[in-house]
Amino acid sequence: MSVVNIVVFVSLLGAVLNINGAASMTHSLYYFTTSSNDVTNFPEFIAVGYVDGLQITHYDSNTKRVVPKQKWMEKITEEDPQYWDTETQLSLNGEQVFKANTEILKQRLNQTQGSHMWQWMHGCEWDDETNEINGYWQYSFDGEDFIAFDLKTETFVAPRSEAVPTKHKWERIGEAARQKDFITHRCVEYLKKHVRNGQSDLMRKELPLVSFLQKSPSAPVTCHATGFYPDRAMLFWTKDGDELQEGVDPGELLPNHDGTFQMSVDLDVSSVPPEDWGRYECMFQLSGVEDMPHRLHQDKIRTNAKKHTGITVGVAVTVLGLALLALVAFAVYRWHKANQLTPPPSEPDVQLPLNH
């Protein structure tokens, strides 16, 4: 797994954590698992849990223990005293299953040398107003979609021919029903508990620090907002009060190390005369909060000439993003259905880890 691919995974994390859209009453519980080999200075197995984009649990193959990442997560033992022991055992089992699956896929794909990486994302969404439930369950191997469960059709989708034997076996033994039950019952049950226990944090609203950044006088001006919560926010450029659709380049939603979020949007000013800059505003919107317009002015722009004071936030965020690289890697992949699948080869089936 190359460094380039890892950075891409992190840069797309925001799109995943914001998968439940703009509906203010939709909550999500997702688990992200990464299993790798021969990756320097990184645990071979990592599993983390997120509620509404906020990390709640962490496990890795070095510590061998699932631990809470939010103070309110400790309340879960009031209803389930064995929760942390159970979660730890599930992760220990999953670590061994993923290690075995890596060997199976290396042989099946004839890629026995070098480093390899499994990613698994699974979880659920629940609308506490309509009670609508949705969920996702999907794998990738070495950065490519491998197999996924389609909740609507209750079938497994195999974008790669090498996944076909696994698809057939899982459907034959009734695994689809088990995954549906996990998403619609067990996952939602714990999501509701977590939302109740963490209500003060999950329902809070934090406003961002908004800055203007520019690499050079001829480069686009970046409007960068960081430190806001929740993730259901919008950032866009306006001219004379109207939202711009052309000459703008929105960035991805990304997580910060403290549980807040950041995002940015670029504006091409190459053809804008200086006297017209005041007609442009960067607008930040967060549900339930008054809109925050920031008028563009040259004196407010931080450039490379001031990077020791101005772009420190951006550099720090990049470093923190790399630290998160494999915790959320898999969830950025949008699986798709293959048009044609070759007949299944007679090779070992990939095994299932136990669900959280």
Q: Would you kindly provide a written description of the structure presented here, covering whatever features stand out?
A:
The protein is globular and about 70 Å long. The chain folds into 2 domains: 204 residues, Murine Class I Major Histocompatibility Complex, H2-DB, Chain A, domain 1; 115 residues, Immunoglobulins (Immunoglobulin-like), CATH 2.60.40.10. The protein has 8 helices and 18 strands. The longest helix has 26 residues. A hairpin with a 6-residue loop joins strand 9 and strand 10.
Q: What characteristic shape results from the CA principal axes?
A: globular
**Helix-strand pattern:** HHEEEEHEEEEHHHEEEEEEEEEEHH
Query: Oligomeric status of the shown chains?
Result: single chain
Task: List low-pLDDT spans.
Answer: 1-24, 306-347
Tally of contiguous helical segments: 8
CATH superfamily of the largest domain: MHC class I-like antigen recognition-like
Helical fraction:
25-40%
User: In CATH, what is the class of the largest domain?
Assistant: Alpha Beta
What is the structural class? Answer: alpha+beta
Main beta-sheet annotation: 8 strands, antiparallel
| N- to C-terminal distance | 26 Å
Keywords: Glycoprotein, Membrane, Signal, Transmembrane, Transmembrane helix
GO biological process, one term: immune response
Family: Belongs to the MHC class I family.
Protein name: Ig-like domain-containing protein
